[in-house]
Design brief:
This protein is of the alpha+beta class and 179 residues long. The protein has five helices and eight strands, in the order αβββαβαβαββαβ. It has a six-stranded mixed beta sheet. A two-stranded antiparallel ribbon has the order 4-8. Strand 2 and strand 3 form a beta hairpin.
Length: 179
């Protein structure tokens, strides 16, 4: 009897114990880094400039093979978003974002300041659908007459297995499989 009680307590602890997922990103003049838990991925500034220059090579396409008919999965996206948005039992999300940027033209810097601010509030609205935002702090600092991009992101998502299972059940309820 005692072993059963201890097993139930351990299972409940595992289900409801919060697990933090920590994500940090940092972009500056020397390069950038992305940290997930304690694993850090560094990339030099030369790779950042090649990404932003937009030089990509197009790969040749292959002829598609004939495939067997598969069952189709239909998801009512609006119903899924409204059902996930209405639940109270969501993972917790905390985010700090600090952006310092600038262009040589002061007019472009000023216009982009308003554009980036509106994009960040739209991003908060999208994040609030699957997560419960506890702290959402962002700062935008335009630097005039200088080409620069400095970005610091600190993000923590608190999950537990019970919340993941609950959201998966809602997703499964809103999917329809037809043959």
């Amino acid at each position: 009897m005692n072993a059963l009680l201890i097993t139930i307590i351990i299972i409940l602890f595992i289900l409801f114990c919060p697990i933090p997922i920590i994500l940090k990103a940092n972009i500056n003049e020397d390069g950038g880094s992305l940290t997930l838990y304690k694993k850090t991925f560094n990339f030099p500034s030369s790779k950042i400039s090649t990404i932003t220059n937009g030089t990509f090579e197009k790969k040749p396409t292959k002829k598609p093979k004939k495939k067997k008919k598969k069952s189709k999965i239909k998801i009512d996206v609006l119903k899924l978003i409204s059902s996930i948005n209405s639940i109270k039992f969501k993972p917790t999300f905390r985010m700090k974002l600090n952006i310092q940027y600038g262009f040589e033209d002061a007019m472009i810097t000023g216009i982009s300041y308003g554009f980036i601010g509106s994009i960040l509030y739209f991003l908060k609205w999208i994040i609030d659908i699957p997560f419960k935002s506890k702290k959402y702090d962002f700062k935008i600092a335009p630097i005039f007459d200088k080409n620069i991009l400095l970005l610091f992101l600190d993000c923590i998502i608190w999950l537990n297995i019970a919340k993941i299972l609950y959201i998966m059940i809602i997703i499964i309820k809103n999917t329809k499989i037809s043959k």
